Q: What sequence folds into this?
């Protein structure tokens, strides 16, 4: 029996700019407990807008014009996220749903040691812990994401980009959330580091049981790590299927086009070869699609 931890129902979001942009259009999706759901689609298709809406981080001129997002806790209660405000919302965001965004590693405070920044999460959300308990948890947390605990004393600039991003992932996992939303979390990292971090996430997911929405324009990457993949285009989910089916039997022409734009997609799931010139291929295709979408909306 499936039991969703998150249900997105008929969600629409506009940006009320000079002309109204329908960034997300009547999206319905469920995230099952413990699954990795990949969200693919080219730049500008609405992925981040959807992520920000789920976590209630949208700012004007964005406006939710329809729908809702319901969180079903493993403790057996449902919460309509649109009904949360103030402290409830803040507590909820760290505790139940955590996020790692692109470039998150640059949001570490440069003048505070890693230990202080991790401890701060516990200070705010777990005030009952003693100082000694906080220390122990921070050490464990760091090692969980593959960083030696003696790095607690380091300042952010003393760590590599990959390590800083791991620290951000550790921070997101600090309160053992049930959902982790990752929006292009490894895009700024080189391919080897990116891979290591992704393996870490799939391992942690198995260990801790959280569900993940993993967002990227990098479809080959998603095929490797996702249970299911949703393909988004111009604000719509055009296809949603398990990763292997999506790869072997894509139904939507856009999915087929997206797949064919990655010449490195050969072999079985999990055995993809990522070629060095992938980046340039992606970019060309992205530009083409943006052009196509723009033509359509004229
Ligand atoms: N603050 C904003 N004001 C107006 N339009 C925006 C704003 N932010 C995003 N958009 C538009 O919304 C659409 C979706 O953007 P986004 O969610 O960032 O896409 P993605 O994450 O898939 O690249 C794009 O057309 C983008 O130009
Ligand atoms: Mg984005």
A:
């Amino acid at each position: 029996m499936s039991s969703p931890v998150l249900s997105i129902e008929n969600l629409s979001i506009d940006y009320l700019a000079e002309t109204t942009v329908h960034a997300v259009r009547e999206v319905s999706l469920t995230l099952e407990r413990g699954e990795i759901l990949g969200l693919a689609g080219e730049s500008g298709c609405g992925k981040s807008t959807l992520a920000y809406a789920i976590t209630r981080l949208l700012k004007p001129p964005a406006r939710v014009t329809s729908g809702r997002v319901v969180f079903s806790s493993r403790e057996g209660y449902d919460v309509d996220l649109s009904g949360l405000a103030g402290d409830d919302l803040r507590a909820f965001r760290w505790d139940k749903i955590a996020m790692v965004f692109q470039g998150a590693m640059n949001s570490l405070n440069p003048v505070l040691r890693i230990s202080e920044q991790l401890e701060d999460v516990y200070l705010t959300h777990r005030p009952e812990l003693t100082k000694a308990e906080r220390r122990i948890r921070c050490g464990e947390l760091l090692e969980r994401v593959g960083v030696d605990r003696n790095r607690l004393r380091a300042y952010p600039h003393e760590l590599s980009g990959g390590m800083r991003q791991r620290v951000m992932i550790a921070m997101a996992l600090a309160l053992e959330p049930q959902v982790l939303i990752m929006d292009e979390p490894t895009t700024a990292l080189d391919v080897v580091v990116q891979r290591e971090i992704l393996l870490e996430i799939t391992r942690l997911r198995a260990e801790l049981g959280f569900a993940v929405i993993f967002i990227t324009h990098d479809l080959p990457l998603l095929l490797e790590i996702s249970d299911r993949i949703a393909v988004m285009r111009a604000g719509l989910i055009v296809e949603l299927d398990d990763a292997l089916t999506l790869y072997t039997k894509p139904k939507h022409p856009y999915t087929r086009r997206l797949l064919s734009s990655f010449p490195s997609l050969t072999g079985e799931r999990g055995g993809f070869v990522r070629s060095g010139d992938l980046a340039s291929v992606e970019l060309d295709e992205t530009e083409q699609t943006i052009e196509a979408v723009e033509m359509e909306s004229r």
Summary: The pocket of magnesium ion (ligand 2) is lined by residues 47-48, 183 (CB under 6 Å). Residues 14 and 101 are 21 Å apart (CA to CA). The chain has a mean pLDDT of 87.
